[in-house]
Amino acid sequence: MSNDFLRPLAVVGLSEPYVRDLLVASYESVPGRWKVIVLADTETDLVTLVTNKVQEHAKACEKANGATLDPAVRRVHLWLEYEDVDWDLVQPHHPLASQVYLNTYCIRKGLIRKAQMAFNIKKYCSKHPTSVLNQTVPDTFIFELDHLDYLDEALNENYEIAQALEANETVSRESGLTVDAETGNTTQPDAPAIQRFILKPSLTGRGAGIHIFETLPQLESILGGYFEDSDESDSEDNDDEVSITSDYNNSSEVDNSPEGAADLLQSLDLSANGAYGATNQGCQIREWVIQRYIDQPLLLNGHRKFHIRAYVLAVGGVEVFLWEDMLSLFAGYPYHNQDLNDTSAHLTNTCLQTDRLDFDETTVIKRFWQLHEDPDPTLIQHELRRLTKTDLDRVFQQIKLILRELFDAVTSEMTTFQTRSQSFEMFGFDLLVDNQLQTHLLEANAYPDFKQTGSQLQDIVQGFFQATVELVNTRSSSLGGLNTWSSQDTPAAVHKKLHPVFYKPLMGGT
């Protein structure tokens, strides 16, 4: 029997080469002499292939002398795309389930789908009126629309938005402002009473389909791009219609990742600024969230808006860690309030900027903990001054509090967030800081787009992967759940930059 089989096995079936390389490097540096198998992109049936690899490893361990073999050698770590997971393999009844550690939870749509996260937060805040989420999550409304003809009815369900849009038009008239017939923008949108909103499809990521609006004509124009071709396509493809609904308690749905919506997103023609193009044939997205737009952001790096990308690791059932090294992702151009259609000033998603000829990752991607090195003063709490290290510490503490209560909220809804003691998952959270140094939670992402970190700051992501592999390696060494601490471990993180923010043993976690 080859000694190559007498090592724990890591199977890497992720599609992004950037991530695969980071994982291979991480396993090469942890104890245990892991055997790492990287599956080729050309494989057509990864589900069966992965199951076969797991079974081959188990048989090799038994043949090598299963009775006396170190239990740690039996381990299999699976790093797979959500749609390539054989969920039967990790169920408690499967004879190999105790050996398999998986990089995703089966059900976590209550966190990663914008509408369902908003629903869970609203429910949680109604029970916990003093929760930090009441102050740190922008007002969010779940918006469902089957056809543009029913827009009035949809707005009636969200009367606060309808009232705000009507009030905006009143302010425009009384202040002598005008509304551009083509864009729907006010000509002087700096009027303090104007309330702005941001529209996001519930399921998409990477800034796809995001729009800012402040008037009803503008909202009608945006939604018109979704529905202009739907009548014709609905008559042709009615049997194949894909609908995203607000069935928040539908636990039978297991494909809860943005990647699980790949077929849906292929029907969208997304231009570089996230808007839908003219070839959008019968898009079947019918659920969005509308958030109040934070129009007084903290501005740095040449008066630019930015958001924080925080990486979070959840393990077992469930323990949550925040990775200390965070990214600051800047808009491509200085911030202004004149033109809401100028996404290069308002949207900070890096993937929306990479196609620009003048794109420079050193300008738009920076380390969070170096923001205080910006030499220029900015408006902070009503005064012009430079950002300080103390300010950054304050923001970091706010993020930890937000994550703690957010996970308390979503894990309280077991039909939309279910754990497994031998699963773990890496999430990307987007947060925004306003000029009062108040941090706001924007959204959570499964399978975050790590490669958008770029090459200059790759060490941030490399460190996160390294710490994750170290923790999972240590916690899985005795073939127990990932919340079972070994004699070398403590309830705190095994890596000094993994900050524990939440722990709750869940009933029903397997």
From TrEMBL:
Keywords: Ligase
Region described as Disordered: spans on this chain: 227-259
Comp. bias (Polar residues): 244-255
TM stretches of this protein: none
PROSITE patterns in alphabetical order: TTL (PS51221)
GO cellular component, as recorded: P-body
PANTHER family noted in UniProt: TUBULIN--TYROSINE LIGASE PBY1-RELATED
Protein name: Tubulin--tyrosine ligase
UniProt organism field: Dispira parvispora
